[in-house]
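Human: I would love a firmer grasp of how sequence relates to backbone shape in proteins. Take your time, and here it is.
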Amino acid sequence: MRAKSNISRFVPFLAFILILIVFSILTQGKLIVPSNLSLILEQSFVLIILSIGVTFVMTLGCLDFSQGSLVAICTLAGVYAAKQSFLLAAVVMIGIGLLVGFLNGFMVAKLKMQSFIVTICMMVILRGLTIYLMTSTGAVAAPLDFSKTFDNLWFKIMVLTIVLVVSIYLFNFAKLGKQCRAVGAGELAAIYAGVNASRVKIFSFCIAGITCGLGAFLLMARTGVAAPATGQLLETDILTVLVLGGLPVTGGMNSKIWCGVIGALTLNVLSNGLVILGANAAVLQLAKGLIFLVAVAAVREKQGNLVIK
């Protein structure tokens, strides 16, 4: 039984390698040329950072559907703040992410509302607010110097490295990660063991909000604009990434921080390969939806009925 469990941990890695090999063959090597690998890496930074934050939430057995809309409102606020100061833009974006994360966590932990209901409502509110604020202006551009300063590979690697180091420490070595896994495995048992489940939930949603602000900062540096459609469907990409990376939808002890990294790379290799083969946006979205359904079905087969908190 233990040997089977150990083997299952490597399935996401094996799936990534298999997809890389298959699309390398189908695209006649175009997928793995250095310029395209660099593009895949560039496309993965934001998704990895966002997914790492949501890992804390999903480990609890909760979901967060507000991420895409939160990226949109953070980007809009960041564009205007960047006209005053780039540092102010970073503080504002992370601050908004933290605030929304706290509100999500508070409603889930203290008001005992289900996470998917809370975050879907937050998604609708934030998206509606973004569209309302941009009705008269349309897309809003950030200062040109902003992209010139921050849209570079080394800065993104530095941000991702910091997020990874801090997250690995919190998840694997600090109390927070152990308590997240305990709550995900069995909230009542964790409470009896002395875990403050409400505080753990609030902290976890706050982390997801902070990483969302950081991801929005990098996305704004890359695109240079805030638009009504910014971050649209990003929440489903994050869930797909985490499930592809092997994170159980119900959370618990088998959750790992690297799931977001391997899942984001897998999804972007798949998407990039399909684009090279001539697939359009509709086909890409269909493929992502099918992958998510298959992955969730596979998890349900192993874990029985899914219970989302």
